[in-house]
Amino acid sequence: MSLRPATAEPRWVRTLLLTITMLFLAAFLVTPLVAVFTEALRKGVAAYFAGFDDPAVRSAIKLTLLTAGIAVPVNVVFGLAAAWSVAKFEFPGKSLLTTLIDLPLAVSPVVSGLIYVLVFGLNGWLGPWLKAHDLQVIFAVPGIVLATVFVTLPFVARELIPLMQEQGTEDEESALTLGASGWQTFWRVTLPNIRWGLLYGVILCNARAMGEFGAVSVVSGHIRGKTNTVPLQVEILYNEYNFVAAFAVASLLAMLALVTLAAKSFIEWRMTSAPASPAVPGDPT
Amino acid sequence: MWYRHGMKNWRSLAIVGLAVICAVGTAAPARAGKGVTLLNVSYDPTRELYREYNDAFAAHWKQETGQVLTVDQSHGGSGKQARGVIDGLQADIVTLALAYDIDAIASHSKLLAPEWQTRLPHNSAPYTSTIVFLVRKGNPKGIRDWGDLLKPGVEVITPNPKTSGGARWNYLAAWAWALKRELGDLNKLDDPKQAAAVAAAQAKAKAFVGELFKRVPVLDSGARGSTNTFVQRGIGDVLLAWENEAFLAVNELGPDKVDIIVPSLSILAEPTVAVVDANVDAHGTRKVAEAYLQWLYSPTGQRLAAKHFYRPVSVDMVDPALLKRFPALELVTIDQVFGGWKVAQKTHFDDGGVFDAIYAK
């Protein structure tokens, strides 16, 4: 048996693999995407836009934007802090930290939601205290935001940790040696070094924050016009026989996915074509 | 010097981000305006009814008191909604599929007095419903009564009795019909002399319901999900459905697709309503919440119930033309055949109950 180079399979193997891939993509990705837009536009453009002329839908869009508007910045701060700690410091429990960051990816979203019910529910650990202080966490906006932050927690950190580990600490050390303050070093050295990775993480985080169904469904309470996010509203519209509106609102999420993919490809292209290590502070160019 | 430029962009991005957070943070509490708000936590098929009733009651309340009322709605499987209220969903009012689910709120939390069901007329059920069949147009499988569901090749659609109130009614209606077929007269159930015959009939009924659930290809978690499975996805030959849900499906999806079949016997389903004491006292909404439920028994409330295909409890209040839609059939009650919800729930639907036994087979 002689070893063959990886690209030397017979033509039929290549054709077969390519066909399988294309068929799967067509069946599982392209067809549903086309179906969403076809259904949404089945009764014309006017009916499509009429789907958004509903206070409950507009409130769902607002709530989704609000949730993502909080969850994404929170995860940027957390992701930067976590990646900085892991990449630039040595401390006990470091590998435990990196494992824990992945936890939300391993846990079913329903379980994530139920955890919040157990903690903040009326019979949960903090339930009586919250009630005594007239605070509502689950079945209200704070619970939705918390659940979303939880499920999106890994996205920024996971992008940044390998990137910052790879880049090491030389650039920062040089900047500090040359008299830059810690803050200056962060803004002028670290951030430019990691910006594409950070943006990549933000985009994935945002897509998940806006699209999350399971965890949010558990803590939402489904109060019309108050605690329904866009994915939950889609389900409600569908269940009310309002198919055109359901698919019209779903098409927003589909478009978000397309924009996310486009941005992701663009950033991947920038990350591979741009030099990993840009100019050092004080570079005269 | 491109990095300086880049840095500026980052800084402005961060500032915009912070500004967004602050803006939404301050905007959110401004929502609580003047007037009064009620939250009605209900089950799946009542969406259309309460959408119209809420507007009507808000107008009535404004006229009576000058107060502006907003009623928020939450809908879902009845059991799931009860669980939500127990966990702290701030319902002022619950309007659920069956008394057992409101009993669950009373027994698992201190939100509601145990004797809640005696507070309003007719066991706190302002409207009733029953279980009927929805079949494909023209009834190609010739389904007329419960017995026909076991014809060869018939697929039956029902939600899961574990999660859906409607499905529990479906199951019990099938059981009651089988008992009646065996006994001829359901009064024998209470006759100690007939104990042996009753036991035999119960075994036959169990076998019948077991066979029935073998013909169910998909168990959805709620009534609306099953309707969509049957009508939209085209699965199954007959849907066991709430009468109101069946009428609604015919109206929404077109009479050219499905027909309603009324069996010889079915169960009287009493969807019940209650004010959640602890929540209305905390919100200061007791007066309006009680008025909201009492008005369901008024001529307007009864008319709206009938309009949305619920059987009104005070038929004399409703235009007879509107009542023609409800076919006459023999309706048995859960108290009469199953000894009430608590017993029925424990015997049939709790973990390790009869449903688990027949469905696992």
What does this structure look like?
The complex is a heterodimer of chains A (285) and B (361). In chain A, 75% of the residues lie in helices and 0% in strands. Chain A contains 13 helices and no strands. Chain B has helices at 2-27, 47-65, 78-86, 99-108, 121-124, 165-183, 195-214, 223-231, 243-253, 277-283, 286-294, 299-307, 320-323, 334-338, 341-349, 354-360, and strands spanning 36-43, 69-76, 93-96, 127-128, 131-136, 156-157, 238-242, 258-261, 265-267, 272-275, 311-312, 330-332. Chain B is 49% helix and 14% strand. In chain B, α2 links the parallel β1 (36-43) and β2 (69-76). Chain B contains 16 helices and twelve strands. The model of chain B is unreliable at 1-7 and 20-33 (pLDDT under 50). Chain A binds chain B through residues 66, 69-70, 73, 76, 117, 120-124, 127, 131, 134, 136, 138-139, 141, 187-188, 191-192, 195, 221-226, 236, 238-241, 278-279, 281, 283, 285, and chain B through 1-4, 6-7, 10-11, 17-18, 20-21, 24, 28, 39, 44, 47-48, 72-76, 84, 86-90, 108-109, 224-225, 228, 252-253, 282.
Strand and helix layout:
The complex is a heterodimer of chains A (285) and B (361).
Chain A: H1 11-40, H2 44-50, H3 55-88, H4 94-101, H5 103-106, H6 109-120, H7 127-132, H8 141-167, H9 170-177, H10 182-211, H11 214-220, H12 230-239, H13 243-273
Helix pairs in contact in A: 1-13, 3-8, 3-10, 3-12, 6-8, 6-11, 8-10, 8-11, 9-10, 10-13, 12-13
Chain B: H1 2-27, E1 36-43, H2 47-65, E2 69-76, H3 78-86, E3 93-96, H4 99-108, H5 121-124, E4 127-128, E5 131-136, E6 156-157, H6 165-183, H7 195-214, H8 223-231, E7 238-242, H9 243-253, E8 258-261, E9 265-267, E10 272-275, H10 277-283, H11 286-294, H12 299-307, E11 311-312, H13 320-323, E12 330-332, H14 334-338, H15 341-349, H16 354-360
